[in-house]
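Hello Y.,

Per our agreement to keep a running log of every chain we model this quarter, I'm adding this entry. I've kept the format consistent with earlier entries: sequence first, then predicted structure.
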Amino acid sequence: MDKSKRPFLKSKRSFRRRLPPIQSGDRIDYRNMSLISRFISEQGKILSRRVNRLTLKQQRLITIAIKQARILSLLPFLNNEKQFERIESTARTTGLRTRNK
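Predicted structure for the entry above:
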């Protein structure tokens, strides 16, 4: 076989196969917080399937579990503590201004 005859043949490279994020024994449930928290961003958003490397069925189950946990107050809907601090500080300063008048 000449290389000129097969220009599109890819070179064989070894690659390390990544472990699946959910093992077969893991239960996808709203109570399994250690599992669910791996699929949420720092802001509290549900990460996409490409980022999570999940199957479609697993992603659907994770999404449902996260939403159930949010409704039962096990997870926050938003996780932006810095914004809350800003709102509180501005509310305090505006409240002081109105009292002084």
